[in-house]
């Protein structure tokens, strides 16, 4: 059976092929009546017209592909946001291809190169430390690009970000009001600004609280996270911890810390209270429901795809960065 074409629609509607093309591609600036537009769409639906995407991509130099580079696709945060991004992309007619950099600048650069070879129309990326130069080169070429979750200092890239510092300040204030004798911040030894914002938010709030609270920072590298956290928590908590709060700056750190608490029979929240940045299905395996900071994943994905689409199609947009906030979900892990 022959595939229906825009020529068929034009013949049935009694209009030119150009008029059908303008209507179906939703191009602005053409004086076409609403009745004619409605008639064209109805005919297209009746004869089961399906756009030839290959021909369209050759015509407008678009592939309708988007590239997504996340830091770690095995992390619940990134796998969840990738799912939302894919759903949003499909609604706008794009196909999403995904790569995971594993926090490695060299691998990140290779993925950028690979996606460029695939001629993706634009990219959404979670940048890693050391990726400033490759991203700046893309920006210099006016390549459609949006960062998500993260940003890098010294490179002005459009992005959808979380207000990490403000969230950290608010959640730390929540812990300070509980009058813990000791609050331990568990974070990464990193140069990534969004993670440092969480750490600085914690430290600033403690310093400005005026309360006599013992605090400690446990900072771990990206390798051997479980071993490092277990060793450092054992040192920080001692044999019989009391009236202490643990603030984990990511779900990955929280899962490693919770495993230590279970293995060492530390009761939550009787001995140690727990608050974690990000959620994960793994929390459901822990005896106490974990208090966590919920990130607006669907909203982040929606804004990122719309933002990238506006760059690809050169819509007028003055927005350089979109900053969203999270929500503290209080459960039973806080005393």
From TrEMBL:
SUPFAM superfamilies: lambda repressor-like DNA-binding domains (SSF47413), Periplasmic binding protein-like I (SSF53822). Gene3D superfamilies: 3.40.50.2300, lambda repressor-like DNA-binding domains. Residues 4-60 form the HTH lacI-type domain. InterPro entries: HTH_LacI, LacI/GalR-like_sensor, Lambda_DNA-bd_dom_sf, Peripla_BP_I. This is LacI family transcriptional regulator. Keywords: DNA-binding, Transcription, Transcription regulation.
């Amino acid at each position: 059976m022959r595939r229906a074409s825009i020529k068929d629609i034009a013949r049935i509607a009694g209009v030119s092929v150009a008029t059908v093309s303008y209507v179906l591609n939703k191009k602005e600036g053409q004086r076409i009546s609403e009745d004619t537009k409605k008639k064209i769409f109805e005919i297209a639906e009746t004869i089961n017209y399906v756009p030839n995407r290959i021909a369209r991509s050759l015509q407008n130099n678009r592939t309708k592909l988007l590239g997504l580079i996340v830091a770690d696709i095995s992390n619940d945060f990134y796998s969840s946001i990738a799912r939302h991004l894919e759903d949003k992309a499909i609604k706008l007619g794009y196909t999403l291809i995904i790569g995971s950099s594993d926090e490695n600048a060299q691998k990140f650069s290779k993925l950028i190169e690979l996606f460029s070879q695939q001629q993706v129309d634009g990219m959404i990326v979670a940048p890693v430390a050391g990726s400033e130069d490759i991203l700046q080169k893309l920006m210099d070429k006016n390549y459609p690009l949006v960062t998500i979750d993260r940003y890098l200092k010294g490179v002005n890239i459009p992005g959808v970000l979380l207000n990490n510092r403000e969230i950290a300040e608010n959640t730390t204030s929540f812990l300070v009001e509980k009058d813990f004798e000791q609050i331990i911040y568990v974070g990464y030894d990193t140069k990534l600004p969004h993670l440092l914002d969480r750490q600085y938010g914690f430290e600033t709030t403690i310093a400005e609280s005026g309360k006599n609270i013992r605090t400690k920072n446990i900072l771990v590298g990206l390798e051997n996270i479980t071993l490092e956290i277990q060793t450092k928590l054992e040192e920080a908590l001692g044999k019989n911890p009391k009236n202490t709060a643990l603030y984990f700056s990511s779900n990955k750190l929280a899962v490693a810390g919770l495993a230590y608490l279970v293995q060492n029979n530390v009761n939550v929240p009787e001995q140690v209270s727990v608050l974690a940045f990000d959620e994960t299905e793994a929390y459901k395996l822990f005896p106490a429901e974990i208090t966590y900071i919920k990130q607006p994943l669907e909203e982040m994905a929606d804004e990122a795809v719309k933002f990238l689409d506006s760059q690809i199609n050169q819509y007028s947009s003055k927005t350089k960065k979109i900053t969203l906030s999270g929500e503290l979900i209080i459960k039973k892990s806080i005393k």
